[in-house]
Amino acid sequence: MNAILSKWRAGKGTFLLLSGVVACIAAAFATGGADEPGFAGLVGAVFAGLAGGIVGTAASSRRHWPVPAFSLLFDFLLALVLLWLVRSALPGSVGPLPGLPFWFFTVAAWLFAWSVVNRMSVFAAQGWLKSALGLAIPALFGLTVLFLWEAVTRGFGIPFVLLPPPSAIGARFAASIPLLWADFNQTVLKAVLFGFVVGSGAGFLVALLADRYAFLANGLLPIGNLVSALPIIGIAPVMVIWFGFDWQSKAAVVIVMTFFPMLVNALAGLSASGAMERDLMRTYASNHWQALFKLRLPAALPFVFNALKINSTLALIGAIVAEFFGTPIVGMGFRISTEVGRMNLDMVWAEIALAAIVGSLFYGAIALLERAATFWHPSYR
Amino acid sequence: MGVTGNPGPGVAPPMTSLRAKFLPVLTIVAAIVALWYVAAIGMNAPFQRDQNSRDGVSPDAWTFIGQTLTQPKPTMPAPHQVAENLWKNIFTVKVTSKRSLVYHSAVTLSSTLLGFLMGTALGVVIAIGIVHVPALAKSFLPWVVASQMVPMLAVAPMIIVILAAIGVTGLLPKALISTYLSFFPVTVGMVKGLRSPEVMHLDLMRTYNASKTKTFIKLRAPASLPFFFASIKVAVAASLVGAIVGELPTGAVAGIGSKLLAGSYYSQTIDVWAALIAGSICAVLLVLAVDVARVLAGKAMGARPA
């Protein structure tokens, strides 16, 4: 009995229990004459989850690994179903706001999802199961937040202009794909990519030069470190005055913003190779360029990719914020600032979702490239 | 340690090291200023040539160069014009005046600091939660990390407008953007820092039968201090950017961001550059303050000088 209890505690059974208690309260409401549809189903689902959780935690004490694993999978799916049920129990845009039983269910579903997250994060897994869990845990957490957001915005009837529910944002996103594509084309494909390539490339070339001439490096490094703390984004109005409203001015901002991180990181990377390895190159009588290409550039690659990752975020921010200072009538920053002015917050959120997707893909692409280029690095072996 | 460059105790460091340190920086700065002048002459020349031909005058080269460097609304203001504007708006104008850059800097700095403090507090609290609750580490931390790939600054205008809609205006909305931008680096840095004690040290705490709280106060918190200062250095710079950007979208009346926006609307380029420099000075002061705090905290805790 004690063993089961300790396992229970290790499995964070408290939340499961809480979830059950809250579900019971909701059930009491339901039998007391609540007429909301799907209630019995909700109650049943929570209790089924409760039973599954108890079986799973109890079985884990006897090292029957498939039992807790399957109970966990079952509860994971059940948590998703519960969240979905909460969503479908929500009223439409005109219906009356849901009553207390609904909120008890929402809280029960939330607690249940959290208990599943808890149990998943203490579940000892190896191999592919471990990586699957590494994805499933944040996914369930994120979905819970999304569904709670939906439940709170629609359930409390929060005004649309304050915080639109995720479903409305998704609908708006799907409905305005052509507009979003035009903004994406203007901001990302023109300004961000051009600025990113030129800025990072220039930073890298100057780093190579500074690496050759120590005097230049001694002068540039303190300045580069200083500039990294400055609000460079402030040059946006200047660039708009110089290069006009179109994407060229945004690209210029991105170039300046991405130049210094690459310079500082590449310089650090070029001096990252060990003294032993450099001595070896000297015993081979290699000249500066041979040592550079065969030893120090490969050794600098992790630093260069680090800079590229930093720059991918900076480039997007730079281009979007620069559009606040004036654009032709297209672009992500333009859309955000004008739709905010018109209180079309679902469009703003759709644009932010687009920025999030683009930012993650950009970052992911660089991470993949890094993996391919620096496969020899200890962090990947 | 090498044979050279390591003076014994009590021996003054040789002057050469100082020169080796500052000469390159000064050279580069001088080169930048020179380039700036050349660029100013080159970029202001077309307008000046236009102006002169309209006036029907054809000055000699030196006069022409002088003209390009003294335009009232130049494409590229010369360094001395910016310096003059800075001097005028910092030292000669009353601090409370709307023209004073000190006033605008103070407005921006106050929301920067408020946001920075809130962001740091939030970041530390989240980090403590993540270190002590494994489920949070596995479910929430990936989102914190993922959110760093997302251009967060894009939400700034929306936050301002939403808060204005429910009646929150003034300092707080801008500070919230700074909070938003500054809590990520603190969270990530502090999670690393609070986890930095070695297993040996944690085991020692266990042999002392120390509670989680005691372990936190005596071991984890002190061990995280270097990480803390490294991350708040990033956070304070991010806070300033957040405060400046927060002043852009709503036509704020005061602050460095509003100065930038107004300058760009009316093509007051000298004002824009002066505001930029003022913002940079703020950034340098903030980072210096963090460095001073780091050194003081290190001394108070008996850290060995690096």
Explain this structure.
- The complex is a heterodimer of chains A (381) and B (306).
- With 381 residues, chain A is an all-alpha fold.
- Chain A is 79% helix and 0% strand.
- Chain A has 2 domains: 2-157, no CATH class; 174-380, Orthogonal Bundle (MetI-like fold), CATH 1.10.3720.10.
- In chain A, 44% of the residues are buried.
- Chain B folds into 2 domains: 1-76, no CATH class; 101-300, MetI-like (MetI-like fold, Orthogonal Bundle), CATH 1.10.3720.
- Chain B is built from 12 helices and no strands.
- The longest helix of chain B is centred in the first third of the chain and has 41 residues, at 15-55.
- Mean pLDDT of chain B is 81; it is low at 1-15.
- Chains A and B meet through helix 5, helix 6, helix 9, helix 10 and helix 13 of A and helix 1, helix 5, helix 6, helix 7 and helix 10 of B.
Put simply, the count of helices of chain B is: 12
**Multimeric organization:** heterodimer
Strand content of chain A: under 5%
CATH homolog superfamily of the largest domain in chain A? MetI-like
CATH class of the largest domain in chain B: Mainly Alpha
Distance between the termini of chain A: 44 Å
| Average pLDDT over all residues of chain B | 81
Mean residue pLDDT of chain A: 79
Q: Element order, helices and strands of chain B?
A: HHHHHHHHHHHH
Low-confidence stretches of chain A: none
Order of helices and strands of chain A: HHHHHHHHHHHHHHH
Q: What is the fold-level CATH name, i.e. the topology of the largest domain in chain B?
A: MetI-like fold
Structural class of chain A: mainly alpha
The number of helical segments of chain A is 15
Concise account of the structure shown:
By secondary structure, chain A is mainly alpha-helical.
List the helices and strands and how they pair.
The complex is a heterodimer of chains A (381) and B (306).
Chain A lengths: L1 H9 L2 H19 L7 H22 L5 H23 L11 H23 L4 H29 L10 H10 L1 H36 L1 H14 L8 H8 L3 H24 L4 H9 L4 H35 L9 H10 L3 H29 L8
Chain B lengths: L14 H41 L5 H8 L10 H14 L8 H32 L1 H6 L1 H7 L8 H10 L5 H24 L4 H9 L4 H35 L9 H10 L3 H32 L6
Helix pairs in contact in B: 1-2, 3-12, 4-8, 4-10, 4-12, 7-8, 8-10, 10-12, 11-12
